[in-house]
Design goal:
The structure is a homodimer. The first copy, chain A, is α+β, with helices and mostly antiparallel strands and about 425 residues long. Helix content of chain A is about 40%, strand content about 20%. In chain A, the strands form 3 sheets. In chain A, strands 1-5-6-12-11-10-7-9-8 form a 9-stranded mixed sheet. Chain A has a 5-stranded mixed sheet with strand order 14-13-15-16-17, with helices on both faces. In chain A, helix 13 links the parallel strand 13 and strand 14. In chain A, helix 1 packs antiparallel against helix 5, helix 5 crosses helix 11 and helix 6 runs antiparallel to helix 11. The mean pLDDT of chain A is about 95. Strand 3 of chain A pairs antiparallel with strand 3 of chain B.
């Protein structure tokens, strides 16, 4: 009989060991790719000063934050809370340690963040984010935007998903476009409308723009803009058709061109320029990108990011421009399972389970285990006194192969591995 | 100018990237060994219900716990707090998921825990613990105690530390010994005195025992007991000398004998039976162990654990006996650095940094990077527009080798790797 409620709190991911092994594999894949791309791992504390976390936040973030307090409160302790993303702690880290860092600072954080959102299916209050950022001191060439995009894309490729497409835009193009049309004062509303355009019928989008007081001609132009996508040359041509003169969007276009040129050089080809991409967060100032599964667009973005002109403006007068991207792994893992897009049966956590028949065989069983471990295998030696059938039953749940070590095997020093899925046997090669 | 205090909160570990790389290497080493020994990784949420965490706690734990609350509190939310160890969440996990687990359940958790202790040097409020546990259903053979000890020891061996010694005792031996002397009612006080005996002069220990009302003869016997150490045969002989009859300690001795027999079979030889080992936590019921560096005994235990008869008695009536051990990595890393026992210079996070001279060389630079990454190397491509000298300066802080890719290299397709430590150069073999 249970004495207490032992379910995890709602909104928290808790996996069985075999599921965890698949999750860990994906996390390690991301971490390996980030590492191979030269990103340095850091870990910041999960608990931060509240004034650091909320220096810029507000709105939902402030409402969703987990405050922390000790029952035994010491006098000097500041207000504390759990971090809700990696970006704010990174800004604090860069300011605090900037004299010891090598800029451009290529940095990754793969860890848990916390948001007390309203609990609902597929939304998590504790979730992994896998961030890759590049931070410059004073300036950072636009080519780095492509580097982050390539790296995130390379990480996702390890998941063996159906065809992915990277959608890229640049906030400066939108800002220049709206300025050329004298719509700068409505930029925030129009951004919101573009951001939602994919989820509503075109008529609704037009109506929303008209409601802002835009003439039919301006509605046409804004709609033509937001549905613009293609190669760099294609979108430039299209913009020229809408605006006539490209002066107002020249800076944004030039950045887009550089990003796509570097992506081509890196042979990261599955991208498209797409002016419907906005990214909700208002700290992005240039390049923005999202990644989608082409045949599963209803899933939405599976990884995203962008350029921010100044990472740490709330903490210091020094300027740290940066570009970063993130894979929200906990949510992504949940969704990919819903869509059966990851193979949950693939990863048995254990390679071999060895069954010594009696304690007389322990020494040989341990020696065999040591040999297999030295080859990088995961090996469990079952020391329980249960029946062999029960042992095989347990083994089948977590391992690929079982090896019985009895008197005969000790004498012959020949071992047979039993494939626990097929039942087939073969001599163990050491 | 800084606008806010950007230092991490006191008691939190925050490392520079090159330090983090060493820490990560140690953590990965532990994780790899646990995995190779067949332990399955799980992750429980960092936030738990307070009634789960405090079902058994009390005293210091209760005072040190971090309570968690949302600013936007929903009606159904239970009292929540940050976990202070892995054992309580593991107990909850085993009860919750026991129908889906394969017993004996060999499980590892390598993650952060939280205790709001008084801040002092070398004490952390947020710290990694690397736990390995084996949980049985209804029963669990004593041989598994040896398995946990061997596995923890194998993990520590990857640190390349000076000679380690595993000190092993068994709570049942102490309990039986005190019962034979009719001292069971003073067991708790005497355990505390033995637990501290190593840190105080022998005279103080004798005085403390005398204060409990023990006769001189009993003080002699208890002291003889606590200073008993050696092989199994040696301690059995010694105990026989003190007690005459071994009936009261027979069960504990038999368990100790089995543990040492299995350790011998596993060729884990650096152990000693040592009755001074108590382990403070009162949930241990049989085997207890600590690991020390023989020449740095002042450091104290670097990894410890033991057998608990019932993991989840506060949560369920089902019986789950277990044995586990833990490496407190954050504190251990801090101490090993203090004693210069880990090489902090060894791990450059990046293997190669490539310098394309102009964007014309990007394509070849990226191709070279891809080839090196395919070989498992970490490769950064420096896209900044700084002077080559500045680039080398940055590279020297984080990488082993630099490779310049200019027009000549592109034409010849021959690349030279410069060793950033020695300044020597050699042709890059691909």
């Amino acid at each position: 009989m249970k004495k207490l409620n032992t379910s995890p709190l709602s909104g928290m991911q808790e996996l069985l060991p075999t599921e965890q092994a698949v999750f860990d594999q994906l996390k390690n894949n991301i971490s390996d790719v980030y590492h191979h791309y030269g990103f340095l791992n850091i870990e910041t504390p999960i608990i931060e000063r509240t004034d650091i976390l909320l220096a810029k936040a507000g709105g939902d973030t402030e409402k969703q934050i987990y405050m922390v307090s000790k029952t035994d409160e010491s006098a000097d302790s500041a207000d504390q809370a759990l971090r809700f993303d990696h970006t704010v702690p990174l800004a604090r880290y860069v300011v605090e340690h900037n004299n010891d860092l090598a800029f451009p600072f290529q940095v990754t954080q793969i860890n848990r963040n916390f948001r007390g959102e309203r609990a609902q299916r597929g939304r998590f209050r504790e979730f992994y984010q896998c961030d890759a950022d590049i931070i410059g001191r004073e300036k950072l060439p636009i080519a780095y935007d492509a580097k982050v995009i390539s790296c995130i894309y390379a990480a996702l490729k390890t998941f063996n998903l159906p065809k992915m497409i990277i959608r890229i835009s640049n906030r400066k193009v939108l800002a220049g476009f709206l300025s050329a049309l004298n719509l700068t004062d409505k930029a925030s509303d129009i951004s919101g409308i573009i951001d939602h355009a994919e989820k509503v019928p075109a008529e609704k989008t037009r109506a929303a723009l008209a409601e802002l007081g835009l003439s039919n001609e301006l509605v046409d132009k804004v709609c033509a803009f937001m549905f613009t996508k293609g190669s760099y040359d294609e979108v430039e041509l299209r913009l020229r058709g809408i605006l006539g003169d490209l002066t107002a969007v020249a800076e944004g276009l030039s950045e887009l061109k550089e990003v796509t040129t570097v992506l081509e050089a890196e042979k990261t080809s599955n991208y498209i320029i797409d002016f419907m991409i906005i990214r909700g967060l208002d700290y992005y100032t240039g390049t923005v990108f999202e990644t989608m599964l082409e045949d599963y667009r209803e899933i939405g973005s599976i990884a995203s990011g962008g350029r921010y002109e100044n990472l740490a403006s709330n903490f210091t007068d020094q300027k740290f421009p940066g570009v970063g991207g993130s894979i929200g792994l906990t949510r992504l893992f949940f969704i990919l399972r819903e869509y059966n897009l990851i193979d949950m049966s693939s990863a048995n956590p254990v390679d071999y389970i060895i069954f010594p028949i009696t304690p007389n065989e322990y020494e040989d069983a341990f020696e065999l285990a040591a040999e297999l471990r030295a080859k990088g295998k995961s090996v469990d030696v079952d020391l329980s006194d249960r029946k062999l059938g029960d042992k095989f039953n347990r083994a089948g749940k977590i391992a690929d192969y079982a090896v019985v070590v009895g008197n005969d095997e000790v004498i012959s020093q020949k071992y047979t591995a039993k494939d626990l899925k097929t039942g087939g046997t073969s001599e163990l090669q050491l």
